[in-house]
From TrEMBL:
Protein name: AsmA protein
Source organism: Rhodovulum marinum
Region ranges (Disordered): 617-641
Pfam families attached to this UniProt entry: AsmA
InterPro entries: AsmA, AsmA-related
Any single GO CC term annotated in Swiss-Prot or TrEMBL for this entry: plasma membrane
Signal peptide: none
Residue span(s) of domain AsmA: 7-192, 361-539
Gene Ontology terms: biological process: regulation of protein targeting to membrane
């Protein structure tokens, strides 16, 4: 800002000298005097080409040909300023009275280069670096104390067809503002200044306006009122507050509509993010913004609108080697289904107990690169959360993101009539892994399994304890590499889709399909998971007309079943007896097969008959021997005892005993 004003004032000198040049000095001499003034003020070379054209009416002024201002000696980007021409008009009466009243300044097709070197030097800082002063001298006169600027006013300043190029060699960024048309007005140096402009940034149309309440304070390093409005493509931003330049600081009301993200990223020279369908259609932010002199950003009383979601709260952002975001946020109904793919399984199992469809888990890569953008520590509360694959009620959680590792602390999560506590981890360091340690209590299993796996055959409330870890860059890889352990228990409920009692009673597996069900009193089981396969060997199932045990495997990655249930229909009061018919459940989740294990049943009955025949033979032998069983003695032991007694009697007779 200051160097532009200095250049304008130098041109004012040119105008005054130009008036005298009409009568006294040649144009070359006038140009030389101006160049000396600019060099003394900036340390840079001003080159004036072409003829100088002074004027006296209707206002005193001067017009130049092409103008250039040299860049810093370390820059190779060409002149800091190059313009096809300058023209200045002054109020002659005010000038005679000692005041500088600029009626008009016009800059034709300027090209302005603003540049920062790799070591942090800026080309808009003129002159030699300030020398190191002694401590007492520095205390008396700080090196960065702003010098007082000579006062002036400007009725109308205009830039036409200009270009501003910003280069940051340390960051490797290059931003060009092209087709720049701007207008500036400063009726009172101590009063308001107004700027309007239109340009192209990254091929996107840009328009902006600003109003500085107290120009003298603002340029002198003090805080002044500031109103700013800008549009970039379909994006709009408004700020109304106050700001200062030295140090850079601002606070005020922010209102931004960032729905046109494609225009924003195009302006920055970056490809637009590939957002899921339904995400980013609307993105707006409003609140009280503070930019502190330390370089931190603070947002209070904020309202963020993202598509159908409204989130309120406050946040703080600190910059550094890794930006860090902290905050407390709240939402009503929070819909994140678009971010998670919008649903659970890939097929419509629904009431048929499909289990996610025949296509299996998605193999689409999961991109978690965004986890590396910053670190964060956030608290979130919501009335409800739709994750697409699951639906939650009132939710309170904490989110901690550290070097691409996100930990969700589930402080209070209501889901499907029950509660969920524990933690959930998404680790994006060197690939993707997902893990958790969850405790689920009193959850309606039909709703949960229907949303998670498109499986609605299990009705009843249950408890679940689960530790798990999955590694892979897609849902298919995660599920196929899943490991962990856990336990489940259910109270009264029913299994839809097959009638286990009917199968056993009739020895017919046709008791499946719509309307078939098995009512139970309780189910308990524990399990382990390895390489995407769940293994269980202690299932216990109790129902009014049967009991059952079970063991087998569930292919989580492959979505398959290989499970054996041994139900006992109509058992005795002690749980024994009754009809046992092993049942095999195999095949895909989408279409499981039920098959009675008749071979195993035949082998079991053959073993029972064999044991019965052996027992009968032993009883016959004991009867032939005249052996009677005593308490706690088997038929075999009684026969052995009887043989021993008879042998003793025979020996006594042989040797003449009694």
């Amino acid at each position: 800002m200051r160097w532009i004003i200095r250049l304008v004032l130098a041109v004012l000198v040119l105008a005054v000298l130009g008036l005298g040049g009409l009568f006294l000095l040649p144009g070359e001499r006038i140009a030389g005097l101006v160049q000396d003034q600019v060099r003394a003020a900036t340390g840079r070379d001003l080159t004036l080409s072409g003829r100088l054209s002074p004027s006296l009416w209707p206002q005193i002024g001067v017009a130049t040909g092409p103008v250039t201002l040299s860049n810093a000696d370390w820059s190779d980007a060409g002149p800091m300023l190059a313009a096809e021409g300058l023209s200045v008009g002054l109020d002659l009466g005010a000038l005679i009275g000692g005041d500088i009243v600029i009626r008009e300044v016009t800059v034709q097709a300027p090209r302005i280069v603003l540049e920062k070197s790799a070591d942090g030097r800026a080309n808009w800082v003129f002159g030699a670096e300030p020398a190191q002063e002694s401590a007492p001298a520095a205390a008396q006169a700080p090196a960065d104390a702003p010098a007082e600027m000579r006062r002036f006013t400007l009725d109308r300043g205009q830039i036409s067809d200009g270009t501003i190029l910003y280069i940051d060699r340390a960051a490797g960024t290059r931003v060009e503002l092209a087709a720049l048309d701007a207008a500036v007005a400063l009726p009172d140096f101590a009063g308001p200044a107004e700027v309007t402009l239109s340009a192209e940034l990254g091929g996107q149309p840009l328009s902006a306006s600003a109003r500085i309440a107290r120009f003298a304070d603002f340029t002198g390093g003090a805080v002044s009122g500031l109103a700013l409005n800008a549009t970039l493509g379909g994006t709009q931003l408004a700020f109304d507050g106050r700001a200062g330049l030295d140090p850079l600081a601002a606070e005020g009301a922010l209102d931004a509509d960032l729905s046109d993200l494609a225009a924003v990223f195009a302006a920055l020279g970056q490809p637009a993010p590939d957002l899921p369908p339904g995400v980013g259609q609307r993105l707006a932010l409003a609140g009280q913004l503070t930019y502190a002199p330390e370089g931190t950003v603070h947002l209070r009383d904020a309202t963020l609108r993202q598509d159908a979601n409204t989130i309120t709260g406050g946040a703080d952002l600190a910059f550094g080697d890794r930006p860090r975001l902290t905050g407390t946020l709240a939402a009503g109904a929070l819909d994140l289904s678009a971010l998670t793919g919008g649903g659970g399984g890939s097929g419509g199992g629904g009431g048929n107990g499909g289990g996610g469809g025949a296509d299996g888990w998605s193999t689409a890569p999961i991109d978690v690169g965004g986890l590396g953008a910053l670190d964060a520590d956030l608290s979130l509360s919501a009335d409800s959360v739709n994750l697409g694959t699951a639906r939650l009620g009132p939710t309170r959680l904490g989110a901690t993101l550290t070097d691409r590792r996100l930990v969700l602390d589930l402080r209070q999560v209501s889901a499907y009539g029950g509660t969920v506590t524990g933690n959930f981890v998404v680790n994006g360091r060197g690939g993707l892994s997902v893990g958790g340690d969850l405790n689920v209590a009193g959850v309606a299993m039909q709703g949960l399994l229907s949303d998670l796996a498109d499986y609605d055959r299990l009705i009843g409330q249950g408890d679940l304890r689960l530790k798990f870890l999955g590694v892979g860059n897609s849902m298919a890889a995660l599920m196929s590499g899943l490991s962990g352990s856990g336990a489940v228990s259910f109270g009264k409920g029913e299994l839809r889709g097959f009638d286990l009692v009917g199968m056993i009673r009739t020895m017919d597996t046709a008791y499946v399909g719509e309307g078939a069900k098995t009512i139970f009193d309780a189910i308990t089981a524990s399990f382990t998971i390895d390489k995407g396969v769940l293994s269980n060997n202690d299932l216990r199932f109790t129902a009014p007309l049967l009991t059952a045990t079970g063991k087998g495997k569930v292919g989580i990655g492959a979505r398959t079943l290989d499970y054996r249930i041994v139900p006992t229909a109509l058992p005795g009061g002690d749980g024994n007896g009754g009809v046992k018919v092993p049942l095999m459940i195999t095949g895909p989740w989408a279409k499981p097969r039920f098959q009675l294990d008749l071979e195993s049943l035949a082998e079991e009955r053959l073993d029972e008959q064999k044991k019965a025949l052996e027992e009968k033979a032993k009883e016959s032998l004991a009867k032939e021997l005249g052996a009677r069983t005593e308490d706690g003695e088997s038929v075999e032991d009684a026969a052995r005892r009887r043989l021993e007694e008879e042998a003793k009697k025979g020996l006594k007779k042989l040797f003449g005993g009694n």
